[in-house]
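S.,

Sequence below, as promised.
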Amino acid sequence: MKKQTQAIRIQAKRSHNREHSVPLYLTSSFTFEDSEQGRAIFAEEIPGNIYSRYQNPNVDEFVEKMCMLENAEAGLAFSTGMAAIFSSLAGLLKQGDHVVASNALFGSAIQILTKITAKWGIECTFVDGHDIKAWEAAIKDNTKFFFCESPSNPGLDLIDIAELAELRKGKNIILAVDNCFATPILQTPLDLGADLVIHSATKYIDGQGRVLGGVVCGKAEYMTEIRFFARHTGPSLSPFNAWVLSKSLELLDLRMQKHSENALALAEALQGHPAVQAVKYPFLPSHPQYALAKKQMKYGGGILTLDIKGGFAQVQKLSQLLQIVSISPNLGDTRTILTHPASTTHSKLSAEDRAAVGITDGLVRVAVGLEAIEDLKEDFLNALNQL
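The prediction came back faster than expected:
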């Protein structure tokens, strides 16, 4: 059965009411038939729901679909994407361990690795993500974790996941990939050799900017440790948000095709505009890793970047001239969104760290939505022509 069909047909078990659409299980706890059943479920001798902090039918359905899409053995859902990242690190690492991470990560992920896990004696070395020799040189005897995004946020740098997976073979190093930009529709990192794949479900998984959520999928042995941490610290996904996210997965394939189609068309239309220093998009031949993008991804995704000449002053003017584009720090919505990373999502990084990953004062991230592409082209070109 094709994945698109499974994304629609995987559902929580029907109740006696024979519902066609899965109901919301808005309950904090679950009842037992008797004390012996409660004992057996707590002892994990038999399966069963206990408490929605641990599991819930809506959450379980969402996780089952994500594991199916990512070809994963097991998974766990979280209240946010950052909770998913933090729980993966905290659940699998201990004092004295060493992490090697790409320097092109979402700003909050960098804050976790430099300000939070560092307090617990977990060291992190940041490297140029697409330089495989830099990853190799950073490995120490106590290296336990590789972490990267591909494509990265916001610079759209790609990492050869298969090459990175091969590098750490035989070294007892866990490879985790943030797959938020690509989604399992465009690439499945586990099939390329990764151990864990992480998503902010708030973005494309939801697809309409409604709810927060996160998910980690991967090898069962690692998910067991992450689940233990999450069970006792409580970063659980709400049943309502899980219900929304599960429904959204039914259209993820169709949405990602259209996001990618619109983004490529817009990138091509804006390439070479006199007000734009550079346009970056994985499926543009001008992207420095175009060949890898075509090899590793099914489509180019819904994100492109524009480096606007004149820096922030011109970005500010552009944001005021655009008529149908939203100005927001989010992405993955049906509505096109423009973000200025240097002053928002990556503002806590130093100027030097931003420069190292290509975040200039003129860089804007465009999360291309599902509007008619003719309208998007007209809106951007009209605004750029006035700069």
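The radius of gyration is 21 Å.

Coffee later?
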